[in-house]
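re: that chain from earlier
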Amino acid sequence: MDRNLTVELIKVPAHGDDVYNIQADSLAKDAHSSLQPTTLLSTFCYAPCLLTFNSLPIDVNIRHFLRSIADARALLSFCSLARFTALGSPSLFDWAGIYFCLSQIKGFASHRNGRPEFWIFRIKLLLDMLPTLTTLQQRKPYLYSPDWLCPQCNSAPEDLNHLWTCPYILPELNPCLTHRSEVIKFRDSCLSSFLSLKSLDISFQTEFSALDCWNYEAPSSSCLWLTRGLLPAHLTAFLNQYFPLSVIYKIISSLLNDFQVKLYGEIWLCRNVLFHAWEESQGISAASKLRGPSTNSFPNTTSPQQHNSSLASVSQDSWISWISSSIIRGGSWISHLDFLRRLTVQPLRISFW
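^ sequence. v structure.
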């Protein structure tokens, strides 16, 4: 008789004192130490089964498949963060490339890799979580007056984008010119790396250099996105006409890291020295940051940031279409990202016959 079982997958954190997880661990240890098999192999001959996902048969390693589901759902949640959706449609960014670049940031939380501060900087830069004055005004309005502008130039609020456009000039610090110079180096390094792989005519160089993400004069929105580590889709789409995505991601990931190393050392660290000196002049100490608001604090006149999510109309079950497409067409789910496709949710099934 045919039987269909629906399996709901629930990820249980290790060592979380879940009673059933503890029981499963105990049974697994007992079976591992036992000299006798706990199940006769002949049993499986009478219980053939087929695993399906969204009515599609699964013919890959089940552990890898379950990991793919977890990764796909995590990426969708990441893409859905308001800090990203407020920038525009998810199609503006190459999330597969961003995912690859993130996977290359190994051990950023480890204090043994020699550069934990830089890895933290990269993550906070991507997430727009660097402690700029604008961010601090939102977090601690009782310490940082909402009327204060950039301590260096005093001409505009110091948000993330202002870090790269601040007109403040010192012999050792010129954020605007430094950012422009590093964008040019990043662009030229990309161009040299790709031309070293294949001989291309002058039109490739001209069109590549004219891409909006290299517009450092204003700078353009896509240039600021690239600075954060958000790969503009038009950049990789152009390169994909000449090179496979795997090659594109590998080259850009390495050069993006070098680009952000320069921003970290030549802009962010220098800015921090000046910013801490300015904080001291305002009477803001490390101890005062730990204390809560006092009666003499600045009134909180800042309103929380409003984000208009461009993913509001996009199914949060998009990951199902990614996984299903990878089963049908082959390849990793990351190569089948489509935020606009909707599918009816059909859970993982095990069919016995």
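The beta strands are 3-6, 49-53, 56-57, 348-352.
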